[in-house]
Structures are given as structure tokens and as C-alpha cells.
Write a structure and sequence with these properties.
Strands 1, 2, 3, 4, 5, 6, 7, 8, 9 and 10 form a 10-stranded mixed sheet that branches. Helices cover 40% and strands 16% of the residues. Strand 2 and strand 3 form a beta hairpin. It is α/β, with parallel strands linked by helices. It is globular and about 70 Å long. Helix 2 packs parallel to helix 3 (93-104) and helix 4 crosses helix 5 (161-171). It has 11 helices and 10 strands. It binds ligand PBG. Residues 113, 115, 117, 125, 155, 191, 194-195, 200, 207, 263-264 line the site of ligand PBG.
Length: 317
């Protein structure tokens, strides 16, 4: 006597009947790289299919994606010239882009990445001193909240930044804006294409003194716990694929909504396989559903336009 598992996968209807994990349209958060100017669209050689837009072009670009179910975006500013003050300036790139998007798409959740690396001359996410950096990070987050960001997502990995941001949001009367912190962000080799896209590569050295050490997982739980205690409403684990064990452990440990960031290198890797003819696009669905299966509530991914377009092909008869 033995069990017959193959009944569950014998044909497509059977596979769907027994499918345990599904992707939903609301699971996806689209990263948008915003550049200065008007009418600007730029390709990013290291990330096929991903573009950089001026705010007006971003509005146009997402229109058809919103029509197929896009609900959330996360903005990254790619300033024309470096200069820290640009990161919190009232008329800064991101500060001007948020209302443009919200005016046209009030239902769209607009969150912002909060960091200084694409503004600082040296491409680092800090200015040397941890606590003084937190104050800048809080100032940037406040400047995004004040113009209508729905959530702010600090990605710098300084200690105590969630505390500083929460305090600043209270101070400026924006206590209702949630902090979605990159609580467990690893010093990863998978950020290469992003640094290309955002012009944020460190000029010297690396980020190992603040981003997490890849062999550690218990420490990720401590980082997450600390951010929750400081008032984070949701947390991000990043990258996704090499850290699905962290997603899974965080899922069992905490009840807070978890977001996994399927980063630029993970995206480029999949596209490299497809371009070489070594995988068909089903590999994207497999990748995304694996992140959800591990326990993520939502996924920040450059595959979002593809996913919203193709979801039903994979999940219905
Ligand atoms: C900035 C930031 C980075 C990413 C998101 N925010 C780069 C980094 O830390 O080097 C990476 C995103 C990606 O690779 O898709 N602090």
C-alpha cells in the first residue's frame, strides 16, 4: 500500500484544486525610479524592461498597470546632482513627485524609500555618525509624509531610525503615516543593478558596517523586534530569494505584515536565464509564488507589471 500523490497534479484542474498558495494583485509593490525633468524616460541596461521616469512620465507609465490591478508603488529618487539637502528639500524630486501621483491616483498607495545614498557624494547611506544620520533620515521621512506619502520606508540600516522617524512624524502632525522599515536588510551582492539604476554605488568601501551579515538569522529577528518596538507598522526583508528562511522565521515569530523585496539582482538573474533561452517566463511565477509561500504578505518586485498581466494565466483554468 502506498499513497497516490500524483492525483493532485495529474492535470491542470487537479493542480489548481490542490494549490496551496496564490498570488493576489494586492501582493505587488512596484518600484519606480524617478528622475528630474519632464518627458524623460530612460532605459537601465542592467535591468531589462525597467525604466527611469520623470514624474509626469511615471504617471503615464503606470496608467495601464493600474488598470490591471496595481495598488502600490515605492519611489526611489535619482537626483540630477548630488547634495544631501536635496533629500529633504520642500521642492525636492520626490517631494514634488508624490503629489503628482496622488492627485491623479488617490487610491494608489505611494510609499517612499528613505535613504541618503543616491544624494550623498560618497554613495554611503550614512554621514559617519549613526544618530546624526537618523536625524537626517527622520527629516527626509517627514518631508515625504508632509506632501502626502502613504508610508515611509527607511532603507539605511542605522540603529534607531524608526524611533527617530516616529518622533518626527508626531512632531509634524503626521503620526498617522506608517513606517515600513527595511528591518532585515543584508549586505548583499544582489543590489548591483539597482546601484546602476539609482546611481547609488558607494564610491569607496562597502555597506558591511551597517547592512546585515549574510550568515546571520537570529540577528534578523532581533532587528525586526527592535523596529517593531520602535513603532514600525510593517517590515521588509531584503533581498528575498537568498533569505527566504528569514521570511519564514519572521512569519512564525511575528504577526506584523511582512514584505519581501525581490531585488534588482534577483530580477536581472531571471532575465539573464530567459535571454539565454535557459528558462521560460514560468520561472517568474515560480519565483514570486515561492516568496509568498515562504510567508511574505507582499512583494516589492520589478516583475510587478508582468505579474499583474500574467497572474490569471497561471492561476485559473
Ligand atoms: C538604498 C537602497 C538599495 C536598494 C534599495 N534601497 C541599495 C543598497 O542598499 O545598496 C536595493 C534595491 C535593489 O537592488 O533592487 N539604500
Amino acid at each position: 500500500m502506498y499513497q497516490r500523490f500524483r492525483d493532485r497534479r495529474i492535470d491542470r484542474p487537479a493542480r489548481l484544486r490542490y494549490q496551496e498558495t496564490f498570488l493576489r494583485r494586492d501582493d505587488f509593490i512596484l518600484p519606480l525610479f524617478i528622475v528630474e525633468g519632464r518627458g524623460v524616460t530612460q532605459t537601465i541596461p542592467s535591468m531589462p524592461g525597467v525604466l527611469r521616469f520623470s514624474a509626469d512620465e511615471a504617471v503615464e507609465y503606470i496608467k495601464p498597470i493600474i488598470n490591471i490591478g496595481l495598488h502600490s508603488v515605492i519611489l526611489f529618487g535619482v537626483p540630477g546632482k548630488k547634495g544631501l539637502e536635496q533629500a529633504w528639500a520642500e521642492n525636492g524630486l520626490i517631494q514634488q513627485s508624490i503629489p503628482r501621483l496622488k492627485d491623479i491616483y488617490p487610491q494608489l498607495e505611494v510609499m517612499t524609500d528613505v535613504c541618503i545614498c543616491s544624494y550623498s557624494g560618497d554613495g554611503q547611506c550614512h554621514i559617519g555618525d549613526n544618530d546624526r544620520t537618523c536625524e537626517l533620515i527622520a527629516k527626509i521621512a517627514g518631508s515625504h509624509a508632509i506632501v502626502g506619502a502613504d508610508a515611509v520606508a527607511p532603507s539605511d540600516m542605522m540603529d534607531g531610525r524608526v524611533f527617530h522617524i516616529r518622533r518626527e512624524l508626531e512632531r509634524i502632525g503626521k503620526a498617522g503615516v506608517p513606517v515600513i522599515s527595511y528591518a532585515a536588510k543584508y549586505a548583499s551582492n544582489f543590489y548591483g543593478p539597482f546601484r546602476d539604476a539609482a546611481g547609488s554605488a558607494p564610491k569607496h568601501g562597502d555597506r558591511k558596517s551597517y547592512q546585515m551579515n549574510p550568515p546571520n538569522s537570529a540577528e534578523a529577528l532581533e532587528e525586526i523586534r527592535a523596529d517593531i518596538d520602535e513603532g514600525a507598522a510593517q517590515i521588509i526583508i531584503k533581498p528575498a530569494l537568498p533569505y527566504l528562511d528569514i521570511v519564514c522565521r519572521a512569519r512564525t515569530e511575528f504577526n506584523i505584515p511582512l514584505i519581501a523585496y525581490n531585488v534588482s539582482g534577483e530580477y536581472a538573474m531571471i532575465h539573464a536565464l530567459m535571454e539565454k533561452g535557459l528558462a521560460k517566463e514560468d520561472i517568474i511565477y515560480e519565483t514570486l509564488v515561492s516568496i509568498k509561500r515562504a510567508g511574505a504578505n507582499r512583494i516589492i518586485t520589478y516583475h510587478t507589471p508582468w505579474a499583474l498581466e500574467k497572474l490569471d494565466v497561471y492561476q485559473s483554468l
